Structure formats: C-alpha cells, structure tokens
C-alpha cells in the first residue's frame, strides 16, 4: 500500500507558486460598523427614532453638525460597573460587516473615498502576487470600541477563520498582518492558543505600528477628543471614545511608563498614574470614574507583554513628534486645551511602545525581525510606497521558502 506524505495543494498560483494565506486584523477604528435604530424617543427632534441597517462607522456625513449629536449617541457605549461590560445605547443594535472578506478593512467608508482608505493599497499590492480576496487574503474585522476582555466571541471566530483559511488553501499556515491595536488583539489571541496549534496554523505575525505598551495619545484623546486628522471634523464632537474600553486599554502601560511618570501638568499639580482618577474625573465628572474602572479592567490583559512564540515581523515608523505630556497653562485645566511636550514616535504611538516587540528577543525560539522606518505617521504609513513594498517583500520571501520546501514530493512505502 502506498501512503502519500504531502499536502493537497488547492492554492492560488503565480507561475505555479504556492502562497501562504493572509488574514488582516485591523486596528482601533479599522472596521466598519453598521447600526439599526429602534428607539421609543429620540434625543433630538432631528434624530431618527427608527432605521434599517445603515453605516455608522465610517460615516462622514453623520459626523458633521447637527447630525453628529445623533451619531455620537448611537456610537457611544454604556458601561456597567457591576458586570464590567459595555453595551450600546438603548434602542441601538450594531454589527460588524465583512468578516472573512477584505472590503471592510480595505475601505472604512463604503463609498471608497480617500478619507476612508485603510488596507486597500496593501491588499492591491498583494493581489499582484497572486492573492485572491476572500480566499487567500482575508479580513478579520471586530468591534474596535471594545478591548480584548470583551472579545471572546470574536476570538472564537478568528480561530475558526484561521483554521478554515488554512484548510481552504491546501493546509498551508497563515500569515497574520495587523495594524496598531490589531497587533495587541492578535498578541492576546496567540497567547490563548496552544503552541501545538500555533505551530500548525500560524506561519508568522506581521505587525505594523503595534501599540505594544499603550500611548500618551490615548490620554490626549480622552482630554480633547480626536479629529481623525480631518479638516472637516471637530475634536469636541468626537468625545464618544471616552466611553470605549479600547481607549482605556491603550492608556500608557505600567510595563513601559513608571507609575510616577508625569503625563499632564498644570500650574498647580503634576498628574501621574496614581492621580488618574482625579485627572479624568476633573475633565469629565460623568465618565471619569467609569473610565478609570475600564483602565483597571484592561491593564492586566497583556501584563509583562508575553512573547507570541511565532515568527514576528515588527515594523513601525519614527521621528514624528508624538505627545509625551499634556501641559495646561494657568486657568486652562480642565476647560481649555493643553499644549504638548513631544517626543519620538509615529505621531500617535510613542517610540518606547512601538519598540516593545524587541523585548521578545531571547524569550522565544522563533525569530524577531525589526524594521524602523522614518517620517510616516501612524495611519498614513499604510499608504506609503516604502511600507507597502516592505510588506510585499516579506510575503514574497516567506512564500519563496515555502516553495523551496515543495521542490519534491516524498512517497513512503509501508
């Protein structure tokens, strides 16, 4: 009897080349969200009480006055301090479209306008290597408003997606490509899987701008909001992120910032981590206590930043002014916006956090590859030719190793 010792290679080919399938895990703000409204009473007379499914994120039209007040009410979360979980506002149902496909991580706005471009340039480049959307390159979007402690259902789906993608591509291990918060989501996911499972299903972990140790920018976002680098939007209309556990999870980690590190100053006080409840409570008495509770809920998720124990490609930018401290002038706190003391980073994440992956060298047997680029901002880097070519080159080299291993077929006679 003959036993064929090989894989059934039902794969995408480029001149006969076998491809490692790819799954993209997006970052904070990197997934589309759809909503359905069924309220007994609207918060403003111009807001809808009822609606069918529509685009909640990203929806620039709804993020402009006066519609932004309706939008903010629909996208923000409600925190339950007893269960330590979050929920949509009453009468709002949400869903994340496109799981397993790439469209919702390529374009955050279904109209495909430039403001909503995300992974599209990278996906387009990878299709030139023979990758097929929805088959050999797939997306794993999630509700980015929530941190990993509320993502059990998502992680179950992600494991199934990895296994399904592996099987549908001829039992070839998967490359995980991630951005920003997607990197720590993926790290947590990998650390909950057995080494046997990782050895079988995961080829490598390609992280772009991983926010390994949090960022001072998260404090900035809580304090003044985030205009998403758009001249059309107002920071003050986008303070809904104060209700999100994901923002709490992105606070500077105690593994990277000392407890007594001063992250905000006023003429009367220096605020450190031990003063966080006072600081956030002064800015938003309504939400400050809940936000500190969310920080405590999430601070131990990646305590010590455990190594993933898979091959890692850690890529990030540097040499862009990045907030290290908020400085309030006399009479400014908490009513007026601060100035900033800047340091190195990618404009959003501080360099000490971006380089957190280097701590894994010597802690795992699999290699850690580190690439530091310059002058590319945290989100814009995904549109930059140098970064796109860098990712494509990693994938090409990974696939070349795979193809070299299949130069022959072993046949065992038993």
The percentage of residues in β strands lies in 15-25%
Number of DSSP strands? 17
Biggest sheet statistics: 6 strands, parallel
Architecture per CATH nomenclature, i.e. the level-2 architecture of the domain at 1-29 and 99-208 and 384-414: 3-Layer(aba) Sandwich
Number of helices: 12
What's the SSE pattern? EEEEHEEEHHEHEHHEHHEEHHEEEHEHE
CATH superfamily of the domain at 1-29 and 99-208 and 384-414: Alpha/Beta hydrolase fold, catalytic domain
Residue-averaged pLDDT: 91
Assigned CATH class of the domain at 1-29 and 99-208 and 384-414? Alpha Beta
The backbone outline, from C-alpha atoms, is globular
Distance between the termini: 6 Å
Give me the side-by-side strand order of the main sheet: 8-2-9-10-13-16
Tell me roughly what share of residues is in helical segments. Answer: 25-40%
Task: Give a description of the structure.
With 414 residues, this protein is α/β, with parallel strands linked by helices. Among the domains are: 1-29 and 99-208 and 384-414, Alpha/Beta hydrolase fold, catalytic domain (Rossmann fold); 33-95, no CATH class. It is built from 12 helices and 17 strands. A 6-stranded parallel sheet has the order 8-2-9-10-13-16, sandwiched between helices. The chain has a 4-stranded mixed sheet with strand order 12-11-14-15. Strands 4-3-7 form a 3-stranded antiparallel sheet, with helices on one face. The radius of gyration is 22 Å and the shape is globular. The model is unreliable at 1-15 and 408-414 (pLDDT under 50).
């Amino acid at each position: 009897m003959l036993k064929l010792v090989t894989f059934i290679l039902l794969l995408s080919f480029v001149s006969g080349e076998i491809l490692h399938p790819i799954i993209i895990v997006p970052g904070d703000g990197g997934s589309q969200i759809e909503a359905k409204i069924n309220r007994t009473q609207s918060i403003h007379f111009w807001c809808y009480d009822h609606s069918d499914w529509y685009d909640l994120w990203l929806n620039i039209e709804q993020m402009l006055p006066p519609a932004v007040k309706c939008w903010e009410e629909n996208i923000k979360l409600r925190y339950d301090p007893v269960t330590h979980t979050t929920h949509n506002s009453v009468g709002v149902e949400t869903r994340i479209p496109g799981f397993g496909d790439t469209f919702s991580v390529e374009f955050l706005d279904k109209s495909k306008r430039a403001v909503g471009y995300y992974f599209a340039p990278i996906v387009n480049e990878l299709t030139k290597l023979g990758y097929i959307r929805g088959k050999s390159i797939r997306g794993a979007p999630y509700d980015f408003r929530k941190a990993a402690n509320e993502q059990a259902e998502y992680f179950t789906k992600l494991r199934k997606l990895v296994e399904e993608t592996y099987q549908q591509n001829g039992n070839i291990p998967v490359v995980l490509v991630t951005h920003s918060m997607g990197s720590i989501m993926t790290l947590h996911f990998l650390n909950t899987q057995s080494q046997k499972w990782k050895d079988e299903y995961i080829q490598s972990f390609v992280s772009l701008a991983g926010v390994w140790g949090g960022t001072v920018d998260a404090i900035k976002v809580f304090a003044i909001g985030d205009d998403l680098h758009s001249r059309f939007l107002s920071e003050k209309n986008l303070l809904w992120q104060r209700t999100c556990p994901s923002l709490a999870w992105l606070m500077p980690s105690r593994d990277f910032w000392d407890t007594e590190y001063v992250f905000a100053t006023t003429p009367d006080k220096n605020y450190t981590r031990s003063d966080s409840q006072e600081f956030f409570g002064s800015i938003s008495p309504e939400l400050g206590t809940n936000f500190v509770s969310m920080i405590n809920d999430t601070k131990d998720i990646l305590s010590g930043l455990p190594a993933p124990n898979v091959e890692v490609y850690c890529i990030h930018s540097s040499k862009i002014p990045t907030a290290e401290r908020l400085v309030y002038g006399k009479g400014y706190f908490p009513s007026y916006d601060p100035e900033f003391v800047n340091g190195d980073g990618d404009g959003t994440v501080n360099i000490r956090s971006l380089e957190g992956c280097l701590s894994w060298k010597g802690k795992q047997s699999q290699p850690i590859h580190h690439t530091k680029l310059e002058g590319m901002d945290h989100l814009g880097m995904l549109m930059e030719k140098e970064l796109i070519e860098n990712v494509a080159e990693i994938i090409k080299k990974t696939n070349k190793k795979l193809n070299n291993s299949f130069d022959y077929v072993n046949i065992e006679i038993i």
